[in-house]
Structure formats: structure tokens, C-alpha cells
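Exam revision sheet. Question 4 asks you to relate a sequence to its structure. Input first:
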Amino acid sequence: MVRDSSQQLIGYGPTARNGTPRRVLVVDDSRMQRRILTVQLTRSGYDVMEASSAEEALRICAECEPDIVLSDWMMPGMTGLDFCRAFRKMDRAGYGYFILLTSKTEKNEVAQGLESGADDFLSKPVNGDELRARLSAGERILVMEHELKEKNRLLSSTLTELQGLYDVIDRDLTEACKLQQSLVKERHRSFGNAEVSLMLRPSGHVGGDLVGFFPINARRVGVYGIDVSGHGITSALMTARLAGYLSGSSPDQNIALIQSEFGIYDARPPGELAAYLNTLVLEEMQTESYFTLIYADIDLISGKVEIVQAGHPYPAVQRASGEVEFLGAGGLPVGLIEGADYDTITTHLKPGDRLFLMSDGITEATDPAGDMLGESGLAQIIRKSAAMRGAAFLDAIYWDIETFSNGNLVDDVSAVFFEFDGAKENVG
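Answer key, C-alpha cells:
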């Protein structure tokens, strides 16, 4: 905006964002000085108000907020400095630009004015060009303050909307967590001569871990642990899909089981099952997710255990003596490499032996120094809880791991705990 020579305000005019002229309050005990400034400001397009004292100016400010204040420093009663301090304490909708009119030029006096809240100074007698320059500077400040305030308002509004969306997502994830936990329908079962117990604890609302078991036939049971890559909703959906493939309540849908022509169920060898899942994920599910798997086919009579370890941590066996040994040689995750081969390893459980299958949320838990628990640390924890059984054993394991990490477990924690008490011919 460019005005004529009588106004001479270039670029930043005295018009507020709402289209009304800027309000300027002139405060001076000299009527002549007020009139001189008022004429100059009115010609420049400002809406000018006058006050003969700071006390009167405060009353005006309370009723009608000025955008800019020109106040004399030395006045009877309340000085310009006192007025400036009181002005800054007032509750205002927007910023007010405060210019002190003074004949003082000492640096300490200028500093005193700035400390009192003044934005700028004008030396008396006021020069017209200098006045216009000071007002232009004030206009820029007011414009920037308005823009900043508007941006803050938009930011606050956006944050409020985001918080609302987050609350909705948080509620949905809470419900999703309940649904995911319901995938593990049975956390403990006794087979007479053996017991199986499960633990599933996501690090967040939902996770990528899954544990479960299912009867194969009258003398065999399958137990498994799965850890889908990543975290969150995608991983949780993948575990839900896999839970259906290894269902204990629907044997006809369980891909680990094979039904003979006589209606008797048998199971795929563990290595074959892993290879079948690998093909299924790569060819049919068409997802970028992959998962690690530990699956064991356990004979409840002989104690024979056949295991496939597909990228999952090494399974642990605690012998009746209390000693802990780790089995397996690693293996590739499922759904990562086409045509991957998976080996089946075999061990035998004797009465009193226990099998512990765990996710890497346990073995890779770190202490405050960054050191991982690992197999050796886990073995110590298992030996420490050797006298405990079932859910009590799993709770103790989790408590010790959480203590080791100083309460900073960042991954899902899951485990299958199988206890073999000895053969009984009448198990079912």
C-alpha cells in the first residue's frame, strides 16, 4: 500500500486485518503535544484517542484496546514507565505496541524503559519522519503477532483434531488388544501326565506374537510359538490369520493336521509344516510380513519331541535335575525365502523334564547397560524358578525379565511351557 505525501506510510498501512483503522492512544499531559501528534496520526489514517494522564489512559485501555500507544515518559502522577508496566499487566486479546516519548537519551534510562515493557522510543520534539518510521516498525510487529497468533490457533485446532483421532484409534487398539488376547482361548491344560501353559504379553496395544497348542490325536499334542515381523496392527492381523491356520478348535481347518481315510488325525512332520507355511505366505497371502516359528510335536506317552526352529530363539529343555540345555541350530524365518528347507530336530523328555519355547522378546531383553539376557541369562532364571509350575513359573519368568530390563521391555513377550510328568497309558 502506498499513501500520498501527507501520509507517507509505505508497505505497512494503519489498517488492521478486519479492515478497520489501527487505534492509537496518545498520552501526554501537554494538550499542545497531543494535538500535534493527533493531527499527524489522523492524516496517516489512524483512529486516534487522547488521554491527558496515565490514569485516564488506563481507563481507556480497559474499555477499548488500542493497537499502539504513544506515551510521554514524564507526567504528573503515574509516569510513563508506571503506565507501561500497568499496560503490560492488562488482559488483552492481542498485542499492544508501546512507544515512549522522552527527552532521555542515557543508555541506562533506555534500558529501564525496555525492562518496563516499552517496544520503542521517540525523542521529543517528535520528528514526523521518525514517527512514521517507528509506526511502520510497530505495524510490522502487530502484523507478525497476528499471523503468529492465527497460526497458533490453527495449530491448536489441528492438535485438538489429532487428539480426537488418536483417542478413537486408542479405543480401537484397546479393543483390538482384547480380541488378540482372545486368540489364545486356553492358557492352560492338563493331559494327565503332562501340562501345557501359555504366556502372551504384547509390548503395546497389539503385537505380533502368538502362542498356542492343539491335540493331534489321543497321545500327541502340538505346541507352537510365532513372532511376526514388526509391531502394531499389520502384525496383529497376521497373527489372527495364522491362528486360524493352527486352530485347536477346528481340526479340519488346521493345516498342521492330516486326516486319514478312517477319520484319524495325524500331523505333518514339523519341518514339512514350516515349508508348507513358507509357500502359503509367499504365494497366497502375498504380504511383506514374515515370521519366526517354533513348533513341537510331543508324544505324551514316550516323551518324544520333534521340533522345527524357523528363526525363533533356541528351545530350552530343563531336565529333572534342574540343568538347562538349548536345542536347535537356528533356521530361516517363514515367508522370507522361496523354497527354504527346514530341518526337524528330535529330543526325548523324561519324567520331570520341562520344555520352554520363548520369543526373542525374552532372550533379547536388555539391561540398562545395553547387555542382552541371552541363553545363559535365561538359563539362570529358569533354574531359579525350577520349583514352580504352570502359570506361576511363567509369571516368575516374566517378573525376572522385567526386573532385568529395569521395566523397559520394548518387545512382545510370549512363551509355551510344557511339563512332562511321566507316561500314563490311559491319557486322552
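Marking note for examiners. DSSP finds ten helices and 18 strands in the chain.
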